[in-house]
Write a structure and sequence with these properties.
The chain is globular and about 40 Å long. It starts with a helix and ends with a strand. The protein has 191 residues and is mainly beta. The protein has a 10-stranded antiparallel β-barrel with strand order 1-2-3-4-5-6-7-9-10-11. It has helices at residues 3-8, 17-23, 46-54, and strands spanning 30-40, 63-75, 78-88, 91-103, 106-110, 115-124, 127-139, 142-146, 154-163, 166-175, 179-190. The protein has one domain (3-181).
């Protein structure tokens, strides 16, 4: 059973085949996606985005038509993500994370230095939806919860099948006071 099958349970069967293939990785397997994204955020958010990027999260640079490759590998029920964004021949950026089962319909996504995010996962009209349930910092058994509003806000991710071999990704962070603080959007093909 794959990580997403375990997390979604019976809802796994409500996903279109292209999104199932995207996550259909048994232990030790890997796959890749390729696509083009728009990455955006207000200039005043740059210092906080830079700090989050320093700890291993989020793509740092804004851009349109950013060529993106996503490589996924599974080991011991952990989904490892490596995102490679190419802005030009000499500018690349990386964003890595690991995703773990937390409870039914919830995963934890970890970046570096013990920082993570709880994400609730649901399926609605065939779309895979993630919504943040709070950030945290963990060192050993010590876990300090950080509410979404203390950082950039609440993250919402949707994956929507566009065709038999392509899906659209929409990642948005909205803060209750500042509005949309970060986003990336694009279409991806499974290689």
């Amino acid at each position: 059973m794959t990580l997403l099958q375990q997390v979604l349970g019976e809802d796994w069967h409500k996903l279109p085949p292209v999104i199932q293939q995207h996550y259909q990785l048994e232990d030790g397997q890997q796959n890749s996606l390729t696509g083009s994204m728009t990455i955006a955020y207000p200039t005043y958010c740059f210092p906080l985005i830079w700090l989050i990027h320093l700890f291993g999260g989020l793509a740092l640079w804004r851009g349109d038509n950013v060529q993106t490759r996503v490589q996924k590998t599974t080991t011991a029920n952990t989904l490892h993500w490596q995102r490679i964004m190419t802005y030009s021949a000499d500018i690349c950026d990386y964003f890595r994370s690991q995703m773990y089962y937390f409870t039914d319909h919830e995963v934890i996504e970890m970046i570096g230095f013990g920082f993570g995010l709880r994400l609730k996962m649901t399926v609605h009209n065939g779309d895979l939806l993630y919504q943040s349930q709070g950030h945290f910092w963990q060192y050993g058994k010590l876990r300090v919860t950080l509410p979404d509003w203390l950082l950039l806000g609440t993250a919402t991710i949707s994956e929507h099948a566009v065709s038999a071999d392509m899906f659209e990704l929409n990642f948005t962070i909205k803060h209750p006071w500042w509005g949309e603080t970060y986003s990336y959007r694009g279409c991806f093909h499974l290689l």
